[in-house]
């Protein structure tokens, strides 16, 4: 029964990683860049929701929507100001810029909102209860975990529909396949890339709120480590692949939770990152990734 | 003709190298003069050894980021390896070797070895891959090192070294001492680092890096950075040369770490975190990718400046300013429009100069 409990915790943690990893994988697939600042967009989203709910006492749903809108705008602005001018630049330059953006967001948040930890209110409750208790209290499932898993499923279905059926989604796939050819077919590459950043950032806002509901401490560096773990998940599943992000995220969440529960409580980060190195060694393109040979 | 050209280029290169040695030696002499005249405050004097460490860190990271063109985000991890192995060696040898400089030297050699081994472990699997994987794996490596040292307990007694994950698990005899105490880090370290040792390490680093860059291997590394496929097709081994640069850099970082660790009576693993790696990256980027002199100057200035400005309460904005610098430098050096703008300005200035001369 405790194992089942751990599995559900792992699944919900994995769902959060999966939602974050989607942002990484979509941006990587289309712009071929590692958006280091993605983790910090999560943090911004969580802060916006936090202030909307606690300082302006808006309903939580409005808070989440507001966070999504702000993060979407933020994502598009970051892309336009920092990444778009470097479209032709070597990947090293883009990566260093992304790290700069990440640090910029963290330090701006620290100056605006302070470095202290804020305790995020858990509004995923029902009738004052934070979760349901099964089998005489031997299995406790929080509503936050249920909502997180459901949100992940809904987001996955919506994204799959979006990329396979809508015009914009098809344009995205075309751009990620071949930028030049897509442009020749009349696809506006720049606006497609902006759109990808917008979707990724909106998802980051959702992930931020969900993450802080489950682990209620909020600080300017809240997003960075989960961001890195989610990137690990994206690489694990095969970077650029949307189902890969889901698979990688869920697996990473399970590994982390089970490691914490059964092996070590202080070294789980080391285990997760060691897993990344092993995966890169054995299957560099990830579980569901495609190997793309380089053409000269 | 071509022989003459290459001869001239070579002499320019070595001249550049000698200027770098000269800068370091002059800086050393000036500092020694200031100390003897009592012109240097104690707080500034305490920065001398860390500055040397960070200069070595910046120059060695430049070998990876600037010369080899791979982004390493775990440089502080190698520093950490060097620091803790150096501390362990120094404390262990304390009763055997009385001479502090010799102990420091041995610690630095061991630190470099351990750092280099770490470099091989990280580099061999990752450098065979393309893309940004090195960045993320080195970042992960830095976190792993920090995590592991936080739970590691090391002690020494007459039976040798003991490793454990708790203080009680060390099983030390009465005469033994615990060197590394998990989350508390290394404690009770006898400080043996000196500014002179730091300058010698900087000179040694310059000797290694400059000679490497201008050697056959260095040209191979540069060729791989500029066009991997072309370089591979003329028979340059990617893994070998990238690994060479990476491991050399990691070993130098290990030596710098040993010097750094032995400069304080206690050292925490969290001192060598992601922020430290980024700080070193800022030095390298601001000094100019591939520009060794730039790294030396940027590291020294950017490390001392915030300490001197401490009274003006800018420390709050320090990292924010670094972030903006990082973005702006990248945009200015890599965006075609902005680069052309600067190029035009320079051309106009030259034309004006030419016009005046006529």
Could you please describe the fold and organization of this structure?
The model of chain A has no long low-confidence stretch (mean pLDDT 85). Chain A contains 11 helices and 4 strands, in the order ααααβββααααβααα. Chain A is mainly alpha-helical and 296 residues long. In chain A, the strands form 2 sheets. A two-stranded antiparallel ribbon of chain A has the order 1-4. Chain A has helices at 2-31, 38-54, 60-83, 91-113, 143-165, 167-177, 179-184, 189-214, 224-237, 242-263, 268-282; strands spanning 118-119, 131-134, 139-142, 217-218. In chain A, strand 2 and strand 3 (139-142) form a beta hairpin. In chain A, helix 1 runs antiparallel to helix 10 (242-263) and helix 2 packs across helix 9. Chain A has one domain. Chain B is mainly α and 358 residues long. Chain B folds into 2 domains: 49-312, no CATH class; 320-358. Chain B is 72% helix and 4% strand. Chain B has helices at 2-36, 42-45, 48-67, 75-93, 100-126, 133-151, 195-213, 216-226, 228-233, 238-261, 274-287, 292-308, 315-334, 336-357; strands spanning 153-157, 160-164, 177-181. In chain B, strands 2-1-3 form a 3-stranded antiparallel beta sheet. In chain B, helix 3 packs across helix 12 (292-308). In chain B, 45% of the residues are buried.
Helix share, percent of chain B: over 70%
Ends apart, CA distance between termini of chain A: 56 Å
What's the Cα radius of gyration of chain B?
22 Å
| Major pleated sheet of chain B | 3 strands, antiparallel
Uncertain regions spanning at least 5 consecutive residues of chain B: none
Strand order of the largest sheet of chain B: 2-1-3
Whole-number mean pLDDT of chain A: 85
Shape of chain A: globular
Mean model confidence by pLDDT of chain B: 84
List unreliable stretches of 5+ residues of chain A: none
Globular, elongated, flat, extended or rod-shaped: what is the shape of chain B? globular
Largest sheet of chain A: 2 strands, antiparallel
Question: Can you list the strand order of the major beta sheet of chain A?
Answer: 1-4
- Give helix and strand order of chain A, one letter per element, not per position: HHHHEEEHHHHEHHH
- Classify the oligomer: heterodimer
The total number of structural domains of chain B is 2
- The H/E string of chain B reads HHHHHHEEEHHHHHHHH
Classify the secondary structure makeup of chain B into a structural class.
Answer: mainly alpha
Count the E strands of chain B: 3
């Amino acid at each position: 029964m405790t194992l089942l409990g751990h599995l559900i915790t792992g699944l919900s943690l994995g769902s959060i990683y999966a939602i974050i990893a989607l942002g990484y994988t979509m941006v990587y697939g289309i712009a071929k860049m590692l958006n280091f600042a993605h983790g910090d967009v999560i943090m911004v989203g969580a802060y916006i929701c936090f202030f909307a709910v606690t300082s302006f006492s808006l309903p939580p749903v409005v808070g989440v929507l507001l966070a999504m809108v702000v993060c979407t705008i933020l994502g598009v602005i970051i892309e336009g100001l920092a990444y778009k001018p470097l479209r032709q630049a070597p990947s090293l330059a883009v990566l260093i810029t992304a790290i700069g953006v990440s640090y910029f967001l963290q330090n701006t948040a620290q100056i605006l909102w302070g470095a202290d930890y804020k305790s995020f209110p858990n509004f995923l409750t029902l009738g004052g209860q934070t979760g349901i208790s099964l089998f005489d209290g031997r299995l406790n499932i929080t509503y936050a975990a249920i909502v997180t898993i459901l949100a992940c499923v809904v987001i996955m279905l919506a994204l799959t529909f979006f990329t396979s059926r809508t015009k914009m989604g098809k344009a995205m796939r075309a751009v990620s396949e071949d930028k030049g050819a897509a442009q020749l077919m009349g696809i506006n590459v720049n606006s497609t890339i902006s759109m990808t950043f917008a979707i990724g950032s909106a998802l980051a806002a959702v992930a931020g709120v969900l993450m802080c509901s489950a682990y209620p401490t909020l600080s300017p560096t809240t997003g960075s480590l989960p961001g890195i773990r989610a990137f690990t998940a994206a690489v694990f599943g095969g970077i650029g692949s949307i189902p890969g992000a889901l698979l990688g995220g869920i697996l990473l969440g399970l590994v982390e939770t089970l490691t914490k529960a059964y092996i070590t409580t202080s070294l789980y980060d080391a285990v997760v990152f060691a897993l990344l190195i092993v995966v890169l060694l054995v299957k560099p393109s990830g579980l569901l990734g495609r190997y793309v040979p380089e053409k000269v | 003709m071509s022989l003459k050209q290459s001869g001239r280029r070579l002499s320019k290169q070595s001249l550049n190298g000698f200027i770098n040695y000269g800068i370091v030696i002059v800086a050393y002499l000036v500092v020694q003069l200031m100390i003897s005249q009592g012109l240097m405050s104690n707080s500034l004097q305490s920065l001398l050894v860390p500055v040397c460490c960070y200069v070595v860190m910046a120059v060695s990271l430049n070998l990876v980021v600037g010369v080899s063109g791979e982004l390493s985000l775990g440089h502080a991890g190698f520093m950490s390896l060097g620091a803790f192995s150096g501390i362990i060696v120094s404390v262990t040898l304390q009763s055997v070797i009385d001479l502090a400089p010799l102990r420091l030297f041995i610690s630095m050699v061991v630190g470099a070895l351990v750092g280099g081994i770490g470099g091989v472990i990280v580099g061999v699997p990752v450098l065979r891959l393309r893309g940004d994987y090195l960045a993320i794996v080195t970042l992960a490596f830095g976190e792993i090192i920090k995590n592991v040292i936080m739970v590691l307990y090391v002690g020494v007694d007459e039976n040798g070294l003991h490793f454990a994950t708790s203080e009680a698990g060390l099983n030390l005899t009465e005469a033994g001492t615990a060197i590394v105490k998990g989350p508390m880090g290394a404690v009770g370290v006898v400080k043996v680092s000196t500014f002179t040792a730091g300058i010698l390490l900087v000179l040694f680093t310059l000797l290694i890096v400059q000679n490497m860059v201008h050697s056959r291997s260095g040209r191979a590394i540069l060729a791989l950075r500029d066009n991997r496929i072309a370089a591979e097709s003329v028979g340059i081994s990617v893994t070998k040369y990238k690994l060479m640069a990476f491991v050399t850099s990691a070993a130098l970082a290990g030596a710098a770490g040993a010097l750094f660790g032995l400069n304080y009576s206690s050292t925490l693993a969290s001192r060598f975190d992601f922020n430290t790696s980024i700080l070193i990256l800022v030095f390298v980027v601001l000094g100019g990718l591939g520009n060794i002199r730039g790294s030396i100057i940027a590291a020294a200035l950017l490390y001392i400046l915030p300490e001197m400005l401490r009274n003006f309460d800018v420390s709050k904005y320090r990292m924010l300013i670094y972030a903006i610098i990082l973005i702006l430098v990248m945009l200015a050096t890599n965006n075609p429009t902005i680069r052309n703008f600067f190029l035009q300005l320079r051309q106009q200035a030259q034309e004006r100069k030419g016009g005046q001369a006529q």
